[in-house]
Every structure is written in C-alpha cells, then in structure tokens.
C-alpha cells in the first residue's frame, strides 16, 4: 500500500493503521519499522494455493523496489505438494533463510 498509494513511509507505524490491524487480524501487532520500507530491501512472501486442475502449490516470491523506485517481483520457487504438508521452522532454518535472502538481495541490487 505504501508504494501503490504513494503513502508516507511512516504509514505502517500510524496508530490508526496499527489499531485497524490489531482489531481485524492480529491483536499483538505492534507496527512496522521504517527500516523495512526503503530502497535496497528484499521481501520474501509465500503463498499456498490450488490450481484449476486441482494441484496444490507453494510459491515463494521476492519483492523489492529497484534503484528507480519501481516495484519488482519474481517467483523464486513454485513447488507442487501433496496434502497434508508439514513445515518445520526452527533456528537453523531461519539462519539458512536469512543467508539465502542476503544472497538474493545482493544479486538483485546488482541486476
């Protein structure tokens, strides 16, 4: 929303936005740091969904704002999985993910 609507970077920390998110989605939400909404940051999102042919997929996408302040995004992984799926997230996975994101960020900013 910050990028698409041209909102100030402080918008996610605005008390009204925080209250809305707390009441609607997550009572423990505290807002976002301004440091996560700026040039040279890479964001990784995941999505699980079902295709029209009934196959279940997990996609991992990276989003970033390039040096011209244009929003970019690329699908990194599209993985078909069988239900049920169990994802275990621990400190080892977190460190591996952090290193992975740093490598992606470095490559994208040199693109």
Tell me the CATH topology of the largest domain.
Nuclear Transport Factor 2, Chain: A
Mean pLDDT: 75
End-to-end CA span:
25 Å
- CATH class descriptor name of the largest domain: Alpha Beta
Q: Roughly what fraction of the amino acids lie in strands?
A: 25-35%
Task: Summarize the main sheet.
Answer: 3 strands, antiparallel
| Total strand segments | 3
Strand order of the largest sheet: 1-2-3
What number of domains? Answer: 2
Low-pLDDT runs? none
- What's the helical proportion of residues? 25-40%
The secondary-structure element order is HHEEEH
Oligomeric status of the shown chains? single chain
Shape: globular
Number of helices: 3
What class do helices, strands and sheet pairing give?
alpha+beta
Specify Rg, calculated over alpha carbons.
17 Å
Q: In CATH terms, what is the architecture of the largest domain?
A: Roll
Model description:
The chain starts with a helix and ends with a helix. The model has no long low-confidence stretch (mean pLDDT 75). By secondary structure, the protein is α+β, with helices and mostly antiparallel strands. The protein has two domains: 38 residues, no CATH class; 73 residues, Roll (Nuclear Transport Factor 2, Chain: A), CATH 3.10.450. A hairpin with a 5-residue loop joins β1 and β2. A three-stranded antiparallel beta sheet has the order 1-2-3, with helices on one face. 30% of the residues lie in helices and 27% in strands. The protein contains three helices and three strands.
């Amino acid at each position: 929303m910050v990028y698409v609507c041209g909102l100030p970077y402080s918008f996610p920390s605005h008390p009204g936005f925080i209250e809305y998110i707390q009441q609607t989605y997550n009572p423990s939400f505290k807002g976002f740091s301004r440091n996560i909404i700026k040039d040279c940051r890479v964001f990784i999102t995941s999505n699980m969904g079902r295709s029209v042919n009934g196959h279940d997929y997990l996609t991992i996408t990276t989003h970033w704002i390039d040096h011209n302040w244009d929003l970019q995004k690329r699908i990194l992984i599209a993985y078909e999985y069988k239900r049920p799926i169990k994802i275990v997230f621990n400190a080892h996975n977190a460190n591996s993910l952090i290193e992975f994101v740093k490598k992606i960020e470095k490559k994208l900013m040199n693109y």
